[in-house]
C-alpha cells in the first residue's frame, strides 16, 4: 500500500473540511500532524478570498483575493510571496522534525504559481512520512503515481472519510509522543530493625549528652504556710418553750327549768 493519499473532487465538495476533520481525529489519537490548510473567507455570504494556515502553529497569511491583481486564477489574484511565507516553512519543518503525518490543502492552480512549492512536493512524496493532500482535478494525472486518489462528492463524503482514515491508520505506526502513564506511588517501606547492640550504644550516647547538657536545678525554698484562721463557733440560741394552747371549755348548756323549778329556786331548795 502506498503511503500518500490524495483527495479530489469538484469545487465546494468538502475537501478542506474533510482534511481539517482528519487532522483533529489524528491529534486526538496522539499523532503529530504538520503542514498547511487553505480556509476560505466569505463576506455577505459570498467567497472573496483564501488564506494559508499552519496546522501546528496556527500562523495565517493571505493566499488569494478578489481585490489582488495578477497573477489571476479565475477571479482571484494570488499573493505568491505571502503564500510562501507560511506554506514553505511549515512543510520544511514537518519534513525535518519528524512528524507523523504531513497535510497539504491544496495542490492547485493558485499554489502552483510558486515554483518553490512545486519542487518541494517531489521531495516530500519520496519521504517515508505519509502525505494527505487535497488535489485539483487538473493535477491528478501528474501526482497519482505517488499515492492513492479518493474522489469526493456530496453523496459519498462520509464513506470516503471513514475509508481514508482507516487506510491511513494502517500505514501509521504508534504515535511518537506517548502519553505518560499515571504511576501509582509505591508504599513506603518500613526501615529494617537494627541490632540490639547498636541501639544500646545510641541510648548510652544520648544519655551522656543529656547529662552533660542538663544542669541541676536550684531547689526553691518552700514558703512558710500561713496558719488558717479558725472560724468561731456560732452560739446557739436557746429555744423558747412554746406556749401551751389553752383549751377552750365548752359552755354547759343550762337546762331550762319549768314552773316548779322556778318556785324551788325562789324558796332556796
The class by helix and strand makeup works out as alpha/beta
Distance between the termini: 172 Å
> Per the principal axes of the C-alpha atoms, what is the gross shape?
elongated
Radius of gyration: 57 Å
**Main β-sheet: number of strands, strand sense, barrel status?**
10 strands, mixed
How is the CATH topology of one domain named? Rossmann fold
CATH superfamily of one domain: P-loop containing nucleotide triphosphate hydrolases
User: How much helix, percentage-wise, in residues?
Assistant: 25-40%
The CATH top-level class label of one domain: Alpha Beta
At CATH level 2, the architecture of one domain is 3-Layer(aba) Sandwich
Helix count equals 7
- Number of DSSP E strands: 10
Mean pLDDT over the residues: 79
Would you identify the regions where 5 or more consecutive residues have pLDDT less than 50?
Answer: 178-183
Beta-strand portion reads 15-25%
The arrangement of helices and strands along the chain is: EHEEEEEEHEHEHEHHH
Q: Quaternary status of these chains?
A: single chain
Architecture overview:
The chain is an alpha/beta fold and 269 residues long. The chain has a domain of 168 residues: P-loop containing nucleotide triphosphate hydrolases (Rossmann fold, 3-Layer(aba) Sandwich). Helices cover 33% and strands 20% of the residues. It contains 7 helices and 10 strands. Strands 1, 2, 3, 4, 5, 6, 7, 8, 9 and 10 form a 10-stranded mixed β-sheet that branches. Strand 8, helix 3 and strand 9 form a beta-alpha-beta unit. The longest helix is centred in the C-terminal third of the chain and has 18 residues. About 2% of the residues have low confidence.
Amino acid at each position: 500500500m502506498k503511503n500518500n493519499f490524495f483527495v479530489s473532487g469538484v469545487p465546494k465538495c468538502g475537501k478542506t473540511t474533510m482534511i481539517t476533520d482528519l487532522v483533529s481525529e489524528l491529534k486526538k489519537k496522539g499523532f503529530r500532524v504538520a503542514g498547511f490548510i487553505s480556509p476560505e473567507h466569505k463576506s455577505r455570504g459570498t467567497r472573496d478570498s483564501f488564506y494559508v494556515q499552519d496546522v501546528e502553529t496556527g500562523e495565517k497569511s493571505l493566499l488569494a483575493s478578489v481585490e489582488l491583481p495578477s497573477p489571476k486564477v479565475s477571479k482571484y489574484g494570488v499573493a505568491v510571496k505571502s503564500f510562501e511565507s507560511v506554506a514553505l516553512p511549515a512543510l520544511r519543518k514537518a519534513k525535518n522534525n519528524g512528524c507523523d503525518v504531513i497535510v497539504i490543502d491544496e495542490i492547485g492552480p493558485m499554489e502552483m504559481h510558486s515554483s518553490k512549492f512545486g519542487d518541494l512536493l517531489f521531495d516530500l512524496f519520496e519521504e517515508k512520512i505519509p502525505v494527505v493532500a487535497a488535489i485539483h482535478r487538473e493535477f491528478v494525472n501528474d501526482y497519482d503515481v505517488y499515492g492513492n486518489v479518493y474522489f469526493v462528492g456530496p453523496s459519498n463524503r462520509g464513506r470516503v472519510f471513514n475509508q481514508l482514515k482507516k487506510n491511513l491508520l494502517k500505514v501509521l505506526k504508534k504515535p511518537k509522543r506517548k502519553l505518560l502513564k499515571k504511576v501509582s506511588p509505591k508504599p513506603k517501606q518500613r526501615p529494617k530493625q537494627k541490632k540490639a547492640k547498636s541501639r544500646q550504644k545510641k541510648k548510652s550516647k544520648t544519655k551522656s549528652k543529656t547529662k552533660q547538657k542538663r544542669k541541676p536545678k536550684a531547689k526553691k525554698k518552700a514558703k512558710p504556710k500561713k496558719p488558717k484562721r479558725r472560724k468561731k463557733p456560732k452560739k446557739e440560741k436557746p429555744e423558747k418553750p412554746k406556749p401551751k394552747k389553752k383549751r377552750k371549755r365548752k359552755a354547759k348548756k343550762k337546762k331550762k327549768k319549768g314552773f316548779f323549778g322556778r318556785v324551788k329556786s325562789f324558796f332556796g331548795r
